[in-house]
Amino acid sequence: MGNSHPVENGFSWHPTLGVPYIAGSAVKGLVRAWVELNEDKLLDDDKAARLKSWFGTEKKDDVAEQAGDFIFFDAIPAQRPSLIADIMTPHMGKWYSDGDENRDLKPEALPADWHEPIPVTFLAVKQAQFIFSITPRKVQQQTQLTEVFKALEQALEWLGAGAKTGAGYGYMTQDDSFSKEMDEVLTKYNAELAKQTMSIQQQAISKVREDFTEKQKLKNHNERVGGSLYNSFNALVKDVKGDVDGVWSDQDKKDLRELGDELLRFVGTNNKKIKEVLAPLD
């Protein structure tokens, strides 16, 4: 509703994907509205600081001297949405369009019950799931991202998005099943990102630890499992002793020793081979 269109009732189609969507600017405005109207727990100074930090200005009409700390992306459907035709039946169209301007009212412009309803159909989205994406501009602002999403969730549940919230449109709740799936994806992504910042030594330790974790899940202490872990760990310790892959820091050696102790507890504390491997780290 509200977009210019030949049949009066416009609809928001994504310009490249061709699907119904909620513009990022609308998502940003919705979160801002929630902070302005409903963050009662914040003091006035704290609310002003949050508005300027998150959105770049304390008031909407202010000239922005800085970009907001967060980027709000378009909300797009998680899957193909169902489209339906809904209907509204205004009874007093002339009153809505001319009543305030024409004081010498004619009968057809009076707000009375003798007018016939004029059915107007419009396109709507039914039971859609939308993916909302927000990212901080800098890594330092990552800690506030949870608060931003919390404000978005509350705004969608209590304020609603769009122009027809009075008719029940635009109210949304979080899909927990989808959130869990996204959390798993995010965890894997963060793990891969962390690896890229690791030294060669830390990457090697991480690789053996992942292998160790998988073996622990098997709950199998037989020689085959222990031998596999022993070989991987033994190769790491030889690198430490011979300094093959570069300089091993004290922290690297400490992490390696802790991993060795975990391995020793897993395969048996009296395992002579593991103890021999650990000896150079003492």
Layout: helices, strands, pairs:
Elements lengths: L23 H15 L5 H12 L14 E3 L3 E2 L4 E7 L4 H6 L21 E7 L3 E2 L2 E3 L8 H14 L17 H21 L3 H19 L4 H20 L7 H18 L4 H7 L4
Antiparallel strand pairs: 1-6, 2-5, 3-4
Helix pairs in contact: 1-2, 1-4, 6-7, 6-8, 7-8, 7-9
In brief:
This protein is mainly alpha-helical.
Alpha plus pi helix count: 9
H/E element order: HHEEEHEEEHHHHHH
Q: Which structural class fits the helix and strand makeup?
A: mainly alpha
Largest sheet: 2 strands, antiparallel
Gyration radius, rounded: 30 Å
- Averaged pLDDT, please? 78
- Estimate nothing, just give the exact number of structural domains: 3
What spatial order of strands do you see in the largest sheet? 1-6
Share of helix, binned: 40-55%
The share of residues in extended strands comes to 5-15%
Which word captures the global form? elongated
Number of strands: 6
- Euclidean distance between termini CA atoms: 72 Å
List the uncertain runs: none
Task: Describe this entry's structure for a reader.
The chain is mainly α and 282 residues long. It has 3 domains: 1-81 and 128-175, no CATH class; 84-123, no CATH class; 198-281. It is built from 9 helices and 6 strands; from the N terminus they run ααβββαβββαααααα. The chain has helices spanning 24-38, 44-55, 93-98, 145-158, 176-196, 200-218, 223-242, 250-267, 272-278; strands at residues 70-72, 76-77, 82-88, 120-126, 130-131, 134-136. The chain has a two-stranded antiparallel ribbon. A two-stranded antiparallel sheet has the order 2-5. Strands 3-4 form a two-stranded antiparallel sheet. α1 packs antiparallel against α2 and α6 packs parallel to α8. The protein is elongated. The model has no long low-confidence stretch (mean pLDDT 78).
